[in-house]
Design goal:
Blueprint (H helix, E strand, L loop, with lengths): L1 H11 L2 H12 L9 H23 L9 H5 L13 E4 L3 E4 L4 H7 L11 H10 L5 H13 L5 H9 L6 H11 L5 H7 L8 H27 L13 H9 L5 H14 L7 H11 L4 H12 L7 H16 L5 H13 L17 H13 L4 H10 L2 H8 L10 H10 L8 H22 L12 H8 L4
Antiparallel strand pairs: 1-2
Helix pairs in contact: 1-3, 2-3, 6-22, 7-11, 8-9, 9-11, 9-15, 10-11, 11-12, 11-22, 12-13, 13-18, 13-22, 14-15, 14-22, 15-22, 16-21, 18-21
The structure holds coenzyme A.
């Protein structure tokens, strides 16, 4: 067994495999003159070898015992998935392919005159582990613009939704309906070989990301009566187009916010509800539209993405009860009342993080730069000085610090995007980047159907009764 493992390892450590490992971790500029699909095609054979070698060397090693408590406790901390785009450290926060948010802000290409990273570059990084060139990012902007149109029946579907249907439900409906034109679903019906899955999945993922601004813009305008949707401008970047479709394209600071927002919400390793759901559904070989619609349904829950809506509702309720310039004492009382009412403080706590979320910090820095005197921003800061101590005193939450959702609503509100029911849609646009990158790699590496084992309480009781 060991000999076999060693020989596989030896074969796999070709210069090509090594170059993938090093390029993923250390390269700052992607191979020039290739587009994303070509670059992927170059990377896949070496990564297949790499995974084979890792499995041969470590496949039988254990992460340690699984506790019965983990089965009842939402699988917290259970090592169960491979996710390559990002890794979340409890203390440090997220790294996208090994890079922190400030590193991404420094290294990824920017728009002319802009300071925030272009999400196009982040997607390239998530998929390849490499920093793209400015030209490669521009090509992606153009490619996405060219793919951005929605089928007419999807437009009609959205137009027929009652404005009372939550924007996330509309979003999920529209993404599900895009499966009508899935390249992967068609190729599968036509009998494509397993080895070729990643190609049409890549095309679907590119189409998916490209069409999201038109879906989000249409929902926003329909639900909030904002008039006719303008068209996508192929000479502009993705975030600029998204901002334009929402009606804020003339505000350069809002466009910059969208670039930052999409970058930092894109991926948060694989175990969170939206990421894991996308991977799970994709493992059944459901196409990327179906898989990502499932992600969106998970993101729509108040303990996950909907928390950004909940934060604003909670803040507004606070202001209506204790006034706009409330004292710390009044805010404390309101926070305690929330907890005593058996509710969570939205925007605080995290299943993995044990420190202030660097995505919160990135947004705070943006606010300090662009809107330091905004009253809602000041309230968010005031709450940051109050809530952690209260959560610690209450003694239940393992992490008393703010997460990404504690801040985003204040930024959007500042620029006039005040409709909080829409906020999770923007999170969803961004989350597509992370889920799509993993779906492509899952199909390229032949990831199998997910099928963990479940147990009944009676079975657990029988299994462990009388044992220490
Ligand atoms: C994110 C969240 C769901 C993580 O859940 P978790 O991993 O189970 O968190 P913990 O292990 O710290 O939970 C232990 C207890 O503290 C409570 N707790 C955690 N965060 C809390 C918060 N912000 N306010 C009040 N109570 C909280 C939990 O509800 C749980 O209570 P219980 O024992 O009565 O069930 C949780 O912190 C939360 O509900 N936060 C508010 C919603 C939010 O901001 N979600 C977005 C996350 S990015």
């Amino acid at each position: 067994m060991a000999a076999t493992a060693r020989s596989v390892l030896k074969v796999s450590r070709t210069p090509f495999a090594r170059s993938l490992v090093s390029s993923s971790r250390f390269s700052t500029t992607a191979a020039k003159n290739t587009n994303l699909k070509e670059r992927l095609a170059q990377l896949i054979p070496a990564e297949l070898e790499n995974v084979k070698a890792v499995r041969a060397e470590h496949g039988k090693k254990s992460f340690g015992p699984v506790l019965v408590d983990q089965l009842y406790g939402g699988m917290r901390g259970l090592p169960a998935l491979i996710w390559d785009g990002s890794v979340l450290d409890a203390e440090e926060g997220i790294r996208f392919r090994g890079k922190t948010i400030p590193e991404c802000q420094a290294l990824l290409p920017k728009a002319p005159g802009g300071q925030e990273p272009l999400p196009e570059g982040l997607f390239w990084l998530l998929v390849t582990g490499e920093i793209p060139t400015q030209e490669q990012v521009t090509e992606l902007s153009k490619d996405w613009a060219a793919r951005s149109a929605l089928p007419e029946f999807v437009e009609e579907l959205l137009d027929r939704c009652p404005p009372t249907l939550h924007p996330m439900s509309q979003f999920s409906l529209a993404v599900t309906a895009l499966n009508h034109d899935s390249a992967f679903a068609k190729a599968y019906q036509d009998g494509i070989s397993k080895k070729e899955y990643w190609g049409p999945v890549f095309e679907d993922c590119m189409d998916l990301i490209a069409k999201l601004p038109n879906i989000a813009g249409r929902i926003y305008r329909n639900v909030f009566g904002k008039g006719k949707l303008p068209s996508i401008d192929a000479s502009k970047d993705y975030s600029h187009n998204l901002a334009t479709l929402l009606g804020f394209g003339d505000n350069e600071a809002f466009v910059e916010l969208m670039r930052l927002y999409i970058t930092i919400h894109s991926d948060h390793e694989g175990g969170n509800v939206s990421a894991h759901t996308g991977k799970l559904v994709g493992s059944a070989l459901s196409d990327p539209f179906l898989a990502f619609a499932a992600s969106l349904n998970g993101l729509a829950g108040p303990l996950h993405g909907l928390a950004n809506q909940e934060v604003l509702l909670w803040l507004r309720k606070m202001q209506s009860q204790i006034g706009e310039n409330a004292t710390d004492e009044a805010v404390k009382e309101y926070v305690w009342a929330t907890l005593k009412g058996g509710q969570v403080v939205p925007g605080y706590g995290h299943a993995v993080l044990r420190k202030t979320d660097p995505r919160y910090t990135a947004q705070r820095e943006f606010a300090l730069k662009h809107m330091p005197d905004d009253p809602l921003f000041k309230l968010v800061g005031q709450i940051y000085n109050i809530v952690p101590d209260i959560l610690l005193e209450a003694g239940k939450a393992k992490n008393p610090w703010p997460n990404v959702d504690a801040h985003s609503g204040a930024l959007l509100t500042h620029y006039g995007l005040t409709q909080m029911q829409f906020y999770t849609v923007l999170f969803g646009v961004s989350r597509a980047f992370g889920v799509a990158a993993q779906l492509i790699w899952d199909r390229a590496l032949g990831a199998p159907l997910e099928r963990p084992k479940s147990y009944s309480t009676a079975a657990i009781d029988k299994m462990f009764k009388g044992k220490q």
